[in-house]
Write the structure tokens for this entry.
Amino acid sequence: MYDALFSEIQIGNHMIKNRVVFCGPVTGFAKDGQLTTQLAAYYLERAKGGAGLMELEPALVFNKYNMCTWREFAERIHTYGTKLIAALEISNDHTNMAEKDADQEITESTSIIRNTGFDGISLRLENEETPNNSRIKTLIEKITEGCGDHFLIGAHLSDHDTKNGGAQANFLQDSGADYLVVPYDDGHDESGATIPVVKSVSYPGPDSCEKLLQNGGGDMVALSGQLVCDPYWPVKAEMGKEKEIRKHDCCKEDDAEGRISCMLNPYLGQESRYSEYNMTPAAKFKNVVVVGGGPAGMQAAITATQRGHSVFLLEKENELGGKLKSQNLLEAAEWFVGEMKRNQVDVRLGLPVTTEHIAALKPEIVILATGENPSRKTMVSSLHKKGIQVVDMNGVNNTIGQAVRSGFNVAIGI
């Protein structure tokens, strides 16, 4: 269906299994630049999900003391057929001594990166109107000399570089770069480049990416935000399950501690314990009633069903969505509705939700996800008198992201 998107491509001496690139944004999951269990699981999930080439986030530390840790990580990534690239930021320090010291550190780190089993490095160049091309060329030559032709070198063009008619792209190619990553810009001309060009795109769907590749707008696509939101974007697209792809539109956010977050992906940062295709069954399967068809209620119902519970969802309105509808996140609402159907959640719409209606379903647990409701306390008291356990989510769902994560966490806890 997506012949271009899932065709192989040669970069240098490496064959990449498809045209999907994950350029990792900074997550906040590393500790002082070191690989943690949380960070490793985060990247492994995206390799498992089908990315052909993966660039790690910048500012990670590679030295002789952590080589074994990085080597084991690289081996695990390679089991999924994903090529692994380390990202190094190149800044203009404006003094010869500072640049010399920085370049020496880069070449030493690159040697260690190669010896840990990584497939290459990517140079992320600072956005400067007049980049130090002499320095960049010398640096690429030193890396090639020290690591050999089998070690890939990628280069990210800045926003400024994309406006100079392709001159910087051609310079980087002539200097020895194996591939280029460029911001999406219809007016950008890479006509002189013969090495693969990776386009950073914001499309949520594979059809647009396929069209870009078929029209010659690039050789590969960088789907950073998309794969943060749904690591299995490539696998789902290749299997013809596009409707199951979690919608990326405007969903990336940072939490209060500066770590990457996503309002629609409750697994993010918890990949070592949970994932869409790796949910631990509940110790005891129960009858569960979820009251409320907004993002919190729907996510609670989906997760509870995935853990083996029998779930009813009650919503007094005639449609699901809640805050997703009111904030015009219609594609996200559509995805949630589809996910409810795929998980066979029994949904009851357009009926008054009373204690009697709930009790008639013989629940062992009721999850209240309705927001403010004058009759809420009375309902909780009445359900308790009937011996039914109630989880009240009132007051924990100020944003859509909080609602989705709260719904997930409640379902994990029952």
In short: The longest strand covers residues 83-90.
